[in-house]
Specification:
Length: 574
């Protein structure tokens, strides 16, 4: 032993050139794989466990509790939620504070700073960032370069803020039309097209310096339930999943995506049985790691969702099962107390169970390797430049691109356009979005506007409608559909202006015309009204078949069709 200790200083430089074995930290030279292994081998159990944690915090500024977790434990990452982001300059300042504290840790390891900036409907970082047409608009245009540049410009805005990881793209398929959680977040229903567009989005994000994370593995699209509240049961068998939901992931893994988020979804007709895929070694290790060949990070969806804890009974048990199943990062939307069970129980398990200790250290090494690969020497400044934040948001090039994307994606579903103001008669603009009414007034200056709120009765709408010749109605949800249908008996010209998912256009044969845009961004409203006025060609295509509750893969067999009929729970298309 004495002889080995004498030889160690001579052996390490040969194995790890440029790395001092006794002072190695995040700034040391060496390739990511070797340096990550060396640093983790120098870590205590506490330090290794902390790297597998990603927490959210409350408020615009850094909360005292998140600072304690960073200073005392040096956790691996933080998650930026919508409640942190109204003031983007303040957000950048907060990220700078959190990173400054993290860099004071023993190994000078920066944080993964993640958020959900999918584009379109899901835009957690608000403030001065761009509102964008979103994934379904990309699916409607069908152009891979639209996916690339969307990823790039979204990523460039996040990079300015010091955010180095994005939980996007969403590659769930729009298999179940009743899915209000997924809806316009998808590229559509075709798994091949989704894989191609998802891969292009990833390339764009990577060009901006982001660590991209595809979600929600193995697929959240074939259920109308929300895993925030319950554990959805998806009845598809594995053969269907392999050719349908898993196909985009197979594309992305071949393209080298660095991270994948596991979803809280049960697939009882597979070997995983009734437990969530996020807690299933079969889904994460046998299928994702071994069969598909994924070598990057696996991150849980928020463990504070009911879909995660429904089968375990406690957050600490869920976190332990998540790590054992193969996740490398456990993510929580809140910040637990320093001595919460999620820390004390996991640390105790590391001391008592060699297998669990090994799994945690393997996860920490994988986290560190990705940080070294993408953050060390990367294009994103760890500490944001506040003046650059003020000067760069929203991205001026991005703004022009997103307007063009919105224009390319507008879809004429029914009717003959243009509809000019001088031939429309008295126009009523009815909708719940201020931008819809404001931009509509620019198109039809003499129009009357009526802004309604969800759940509002139809009597007032009908009173306005009786005085109109043409009604242009903004349709985005089931409550709006009910209001729109109240106009059917009035014998007026009715134009349905669909926003977000156009699924509610199913069966609207009685309207005189309908168009679809795919977000409530100003660019989408501008494009939609431009199409109605005949100023642009509405060349987009709805990226799923209307009036059909499910899509069936061309590769699927009659057995698959049977599974599809049984998996929709009778809600699709309603």
């Amino acid at each position: 032993m004495r002889r080995l200790m004498i030889l160690l200083p001579l052996i390490f430089p040969l194995l790890f050139p440029g790395v001092n074995s006794f002072t190695a930290d995040f700034t040391s030279s060496g390739n990511p794989e070797e340096l990550a292994r060396l640093i983790v081998n120098s870590m205590s159990d506490e330090q290794a466990l902390a790297q597998t944690f990603m927490f959210g915090w409350t408020g615009a500024g850094p909360s005292p509790l998140i600072l304690d977790w960073i200073r005392e434990r040096n956790i691996g990452g933080v998650k930026v939620f919508g409640w942190n982001t109204e003031d983007t300059t303040r957000l950048a300042e907060t990220i700078g504070t959190l990173q400054t504290e993290s860099l004071k840790g023993a190994f000078r390891i920066p944080l993964l700073v993640a958020t959900d900036q999918e584009g379109g409907w899901i835009r957690h970082v608000k403030g001065a960032t761009s509102e964008t047409p979103g994934n379904m608009a990309i699916g409607a245009s069908g152009v891979p370069m639209d996916a690339y540049w969307s990823g790039y410009y979204i990523g460039r805005e996040l990079a300015v803020l010091g955010i180095n990881m994005n939980f996007a793209p969403t590659v769930d398929l729009y298999t179940n039309r009743g899915s209000t959680l997924i809806g316009p977040r998808t590229f559509g229903v075709d798994p091949v097209k989704t894989g191609i567009l998802g891969a292009a989005f990833v390339k764009g994000q990577q060009a901006a310096g982001l660590i991209t994370t595809a979600k929600h593995y193995p697929g959240h699209g074939d259920t109308d339930l929300d895993s925030h509240g319950v554990l959805p049961q998806i009845k598809a068998d594995f053969d269907v999943l392999w050719e349908r939901e898993l196909l985009p992931y197979r594309f992305l893994v071949k393209e080298g995506i660095p991270a994948i988020m596991s979803g809280h979804l049960a697939f009882p007709n597979t070997q995983a049985g009734a437990i969530p895929a996020s807690l299933s070694p079969w889904f994460l290790q046998d299928i994702l790691r071994k069969r598909i060949g994924f070598k990057g990070l696996i991150i849980t969806d928020d463990l504070m969702m009911n879909g995660a804890t429904s089968t375990t009974g406690s957050l600490s048990k869920t976190a332990k099962q998540a790590l054992l199943a193969g996740n490398d990062i456990v993510m929580l939307s809140g910040t637990p107390n320093l001595n919460d069970g999620i820390w004390t129980n996991l640390l105790a398990s590391m001391k008592e169970e060699p297998g669990f200790r090994s799994r945690v250290r393997d996860a920490a090494q994988r986290v560190l390797r990705v940080k070294l690969q993408y953050i060390r020497g990367g294009t994103i400044s760890i500490i944001p430049n506040l003046q650059r934040v003020k000067d760069s948001l929203p991205d001026p090039e991005g703004r022009d691109f997103f307007l063009n994307l919105a224009a390319r994606s507008v879809t004429l579903v029914k009717g003959d356009f243009p509809l000019y103001p001088e031939t429309a008669g008295k126009v009523l603009l009815a909708g719940q979005y201020e931008d819809f009414l404001k931009i509509g007034k620019l198109a039809y200056p003499d129009a009357v506007t009526y802004r309604f709120s969800p759940g509002r009765g139809t009597a007032e709408l009908q009173r306005y409608a009786r005085d109109a010749d043409t009604i242009i109605f903004c349709l985005s949800d089931r409550a709006g559909l009910k209001m729109l249908e109240s106009l059917q008996t009035l014998q007026k010209r009715v134009i349905a202006f669909s926003v977000l998912s156009p699924v509610y256009l199913d069966g609207l044969d009685w309207v005189d015309g309908s168009i679809a845009v795919y977000s409530y961004s100003p660019e989408s409203f501008i494009s939609g009204f431009s199409a109605i006025l005949g100023r642009l060609d509405a060349s987009g295509k709805v990226p799923f078949p209307l009036n059909e509750p499910h899509w069936v893969s061309p590769q699927s067999s009659r057995q698959n069709q049977s599974v599809n009929r049984n998996s929709g729970q009778g809600t699709a298309g309603e």
